[in-house]
Structure of L-threonine aldolase:
Amino acid sequence: MFFASDNGSPVPPEVLAALARANEGYARGYGADEIMAHVTARLREIFEAPEAAVFLVPTGTTANALALATFCPPWGAVFCHTHAHVAEDECGAPEFYTAGAKLVLVPGAHGKMTPETLAPVLARTGAGGVHSVQKGILTLTNVTEAGTVYTPAEIAALSSMAREAGIPVHLDGARFANALVATASSPAGMTWKAGVDVLSFGGTKNGLMGVEAVVIFDPAKAWEFELRRKRAGHLFSKHRYLSAQMEAYLAEGLWLRLAMHANRMGGLVAEKVAALPGARLLHPAQANIVFADWPEGRHGPARAAGAVYYDMPAEPRREAARLVASWCTTEADVEALIAALTP
């Protein structure tokens, strides 16, 4: 009954096998390994972007912070949702790696900004001339921190506004695969075709031991990112162990199969939690993350039964939780959770 986060899951056997193969003999370091060449070619194929630059880093925070730093100057504004991961869960890393760019928060229901919420924030940013932070970059999160997803059309609408403002677009795709299968979209359609300049392509939350890819659709920015990655201390010496994970992830559609299963289990959690007496969903459950609340008094028995999840702020006399399914969540896990939460 582990529903705290999908990054608490074990590693799929296909990935462990790939790591064992990569561990045989010698390989060049710092990303010059042959496996990395295969990863780059495969991601270019998947994204229909033959000139895209591809880099691997160990964490999502690294991917986001270095991507933003590459595209946003220190005096720039990083436009993000009020509850975006870069705003609430990265300990100031975006501000640190950009050397001072300001996070400018954009509201929106269920974790999603809209053209209507973004427009006034864009309009007032930089209005004070040299005294004001200037427009820097727009960053979107898919899947959002509320468990909802942006469609390619929604991303395109927001990206169009960014283009009119003269700024690039970053997509935080820590759960990119989950968003992709939830919307039945194509990787290209959700990214560069919708106006995205740089993508943090997640792996860790979808089963990998620890690796994320940064995909830069404008290769002119590649060298700067390389320098920033090295200067930040995130260029792995034994890089093949990152490459091997990502190669296995992308082989034969594993990344999509893992996400499909996680989403299916997330949907089952949402369906069954919503049917509990007095319970309700707090956001549309569109991928593998469910936010719900229920009458107080259920956390204790559920935890005693072995349920693991995060508490969330709740209204008086109610309890709330975030429940996250992973690639290896089973229907039996879900049934056990529901039994533990049933009064």
Remarks:
- The first helix runs from residue 13 to 22.
- The chain has a mean pLDDT of 97.
- Residues 163 and 195 are 8 Å apart (CA to CA).
